[in-house]
Design goal:
Layout: H1 12-29, H2 33-59
Length: about 60
């Protein structure tokens, strides 16, 4: 089985920022409280990933 490989055109930090912006807009537009909480949870995970990635690049 051959792996599908491709190069990323944007950095991980940029992709996380785009994802966070998209999810933040969805959370602002959400009317259902349960859906909004789920989106905010995903946003916190993205922020944590961004912080973790930033720390790894500083240490490297």
């Amino acid at each position: 089985m051959k792996r599908r490989r491709f190069k990323q055109t944007t950095s991980l930090q940029e992709r996380i920022a785009e994802f966070s912006e998209k999810v933040r807009k969805q959370a602002d537009a959400a009317t259902d409280e349960k859906e909004k909480e789920e989106l905010l949870r995903r946003l916190r995970f993205a922020d944590t990933a961004a912080n973790f990635e930033r720390q790894l690049t500083i240490e490297a």
